[in-house]
TrEMBL record:
Annotated Cytochrome oxidase subunit II copper A binding domain residues: 126-246
Descriptive protein name: cytochrome-c oxidase
Major subcellular location class: membrane
Keyword Transferase: no
A cellular component annotation (GO) from this entry: membrane
Family of this protein: Belongs to the cytochrome c oxidase subunit 2 family.
Regions that span the bilayer: 53-74, 95-113
Entry EC no(s): 7.1.1.9
Amino acid sequence: MPKQPRSRLMKVVRASTLLAPVFLLTSCAKIPGFGYEEGLSSVNETTLPLWQGAWITAAVVGLFTLGLILWVAIFHRKKSAAFPKQTQYNIPIEVVYTLVPLLIVAVLFAYTARDQSRITTPASNTVMHDISVNGIQWSWQFTYPEAGSNVTVTGTPSQPPVLYVPVGERVRFTLTSSDVVHGFWIPAFMIQLQNLPGVTNHLEFTANKIGTYKGFCNILCGRDHSEMRFSVKVVTPAEYQSYLLELKAAQS
């Protein structure tokens, strides 16, 4: 009889450990963005579900691990001075805790590779604009071929440049570097691609929401790396064309 309450408590702990992930996934109708807003760009539409899935996987693993820790702490405490029974190995458990992490990593890797391919595969038939992004120590140069071959906006650490992008229209970015490796990073859009000296990289995406977003270099590139910032201003197509005309007039 004295063991009955303990047995019931053990069942409750085990059930809670198994059901916690279910409650986590079904407690709310909408999965949070875990720091990111949904639908800001075409990249978000691909990357955000992967980001959410990774966090949910981590939460499930964490809760299951916490349940095991609590179960051991509650039901395997020292009860007497007797030396506990020693077990050399447990092959089924060792196989499980080897294969399960490998399976989790393999699934996450497969989804990552799939989404990376979707993001980096060019879609030339839908590209409407071209913009060149050149990294320099320690700022950015934005070139708009539609406004003229030599129309370039150059920023400085004290005056970060503004990158204009039309909402709802796909843009192809050509990424280069004049000196060292830089990282073209727009956190809100979940976008990052390196600017490499001697190498030309390409990135395509569509901005879906009007607004101003922060951009950074996220590759340590020298003394003023922390000042290598820029802003992305997403405007209407009409405002974008007006901006191109302003740039063209300023160069003439």
